[in-house]
């Protein structure tokens, strides 16, 4: 007899491009940190859609904000203003301590927007000769899937067979301030950096690295662009991960949790001397800054202003890291991360562990071959977190 799960997976197997390798589970409902699959199994979500579900599934405040907006107006395009737009950009700018916001939808679009901003700023403000601008990025980076962004990826899966590649990028080792200094010159318009590399396996750079990036950008008159799409909005125990080093970038790139787990909302946030380079018609998006996105985004910002989620991530994160570092050294090589975010580096393949965790009722996913990434919703209870970590111990003991 075929199960509902098997039936549905056969459909997606046959008709969906195979650009993902999902675990054998089909989710039907979710609330808070828990999801229910089509067989009625309850599973604890320890991935939170790579941080897009920081506030848990269907947070009542976010659902209420979305419902209210659904009853009013959902899309007008930027040809007209709507009453959620001004407040959204003002509130997001204030949260980041900047002056201006350029809203987009997906994270990749916001990164593209930041790259265009840096180039345009470089030519029109810094005075770089036409088409000579360079932007520095780091080995192991993940910034999205567009042709330009994968042009500076160092992951063969992300990059191969998509050429010809967009020129104008230099790649240096992550965490290496000396290599960065050597790569920068008078035509460097930006340094694009993840404060913690998520997709690469939750790689935390050496202490002082982000401070060095800030200093080098200032010295060379280049924009420090922090991609906080995954690390930001509470994930590491602070609103932005750069705060752990007291660093203020010129440009924040935000996404994922900004949409409250309801819809894609992304943004570039910077001061007016940077984002002011755009004039009407020079950049845009049909859905960027739409009323529903702004209403949900405003509620996300209001929730972050309480500091409650950052605090949960900090204290529960300490607890999680304490437990993870006590895992047996013969199976766990290293534990990295900050707040409720961890890359557990195993001595073997991570896929069988995430498959075993699924059987034990825990949703987690490997990244690359040997890393298990843990990023539970920040609303997870301590009891549920411990329950998941107990199951991780069981799963690891078997391997
Ligand atoms: C997820 C992610 C992106 C891309 O966001 P999409 O919404 O998937 O396009 C970019 N940068 C970082 C750091 C991410 O984690």
From TrEMBL:
GO biological process: L-proline biosynthetic process
Protein's name according to its UniProt entry: ornithine aminotransferase
Pathway annotation: Amino-acid biosynthesis; L-proline biosynthesis; L-glutamate 5-semialdehyde from L-ornithine: step 1/1
Keyword terms, alphabetized: Amino-acid biosynthesis, Aminotransferase, Proline biosynthesis, Pyridoxal phosphate, Transferase
CDD domains to which the protein is assigned, alphabetical: OAT_like
Record family assignment: Belongs to the class-III pyridoxal-phosphate-dependent aminotransferase family.
GO molecular function, one term: ornithine aminotransferase activity
Keyword Glycoprotein: no
